[in-house]
Hints:
By secondary structure, the protein is an alpha/beta fold. The chain is built from twelve helices and 21 strands.
Amino acid sequence: MKLKEIKGLKYIRDSFKTRHFKYGGYAALITLAVIVGLIVINLIIGQFTIQIDMTESGLFSLSEQTTQVLDQINEPVNLIGLWRPGEENPQLVQVIDLYRSKSRNIRFEAKDLNRNPSLTQQYDTNNTGLQPGSLIVEGPKGFKVIAPGDMYDYMYNQRGGRQVTGLAMERQITAALVYAATGTTPVIYEIMGHYQEYTLADIGMQDLIEKENFFVRQINLFQSDIPEDAAGLILSTPRLDLSRAEADKILDYLESGGRLFVTVDYRIGELTLLNEVLASYGMQVEFGRLIENDRNYTAGFPYIEYLEFFPEHEITKPLMDQRMPVLLANSMGITETPAKRRSVELKPLLTSSGNSFIRTDIFDTSVTMSATDIPGPIDIGMTATDPYWIDPNNPVPQARIVVIACGTVLEMAGYSPGNIDLYMNSITWLVDRPETLTVRSKSMFLLPMRINENLMIIYGIIIVILIPLGFFISGFVIWLRRRHL
């Protein structure tokens, strides 16, 4: 019997010629091709390490300034992790890998302190002991030891407990790299002797500043002159005005290209001689109390300013980029003097709304503006540079001043980590350390969502009107089309 005579064979052969088989075959081939293509693409992508940091504060990436620092490192820098295998900090190892991926001169090695006791003799220069989990950054000009507790930022509550608010690993490592590569540490002098004022050490800021590769020293200008190694001066919320001798020393220092950072409190009263120093550079502090009547600029009270938008400045740019608000209480104002030198440039840092004003009578508790008050918007922070432009062919010392007319800028830092960034950015800009200006901690602090009145109206229109209207129009169009079928 011949094959073609088999019953049903012709039917099977003809079924391969049908339209259904052709379309089904094409669909199967396309599906198979897509699957094979996806497998090939996955195999290719698997050969690369591609990561996209989607976190708001860039927790898993390095800042542009850190990349610039790494580009300038031309000699090997060793990172030594003091931990046993299996006891490393995964977050720290991940950050170290980011540094190594950006520079071939960054070398890393983990060592066990118990098996390498010589490390203590070599790197424990202060005889305080090396902690397991620390990181040593050693370069051609020196080394820095970063303790485990310094790799995070904390917020303390009233019970003495603490909460991690940010990752400080990049900030600490980059500052250590700058020191290890240059061997230089700027010295900041804190002006003392104004009636029992709180020192930076009292409020925990001295340790934070020194971790940023600065030395902080105290100086009494009644008794001493300003040292030649002074990279900058800090006058932190004085409780008394300057004396004539102090004012003259600060003015002489600024005229030679000095740097000054001032914070002031409204409860102290008129600061005549301090204002005389500032007036030499075109600004003055307006004695009074800032009242804010715009709800978008307050934290619920007219004496507390909630600032999340800032004038354009190198100091505030990182705050804007990371959406870090600043919280201030009982601020004053800073205004430009009627006359100033042409060589001086003033730039605002912090500004209130147009519905604010300076209450000149601080004992008046009303929130309505009177005839003697100063209308807003009010500058709460301001910088001055003289000369404002430096000729590369004829460089001259440039004086820099930062003034924040709020004595609570550090007190409110427990409620807003942006205050610390504002303070530290001011210092790094003041002494011209751009390599660490934007290398701030990666914030893990979750702020409550703030919706102002305008956003409430917009969201209300979208949810209550536009979305239901969209469904109604879509349904009506579908109904019309089906009606004519």
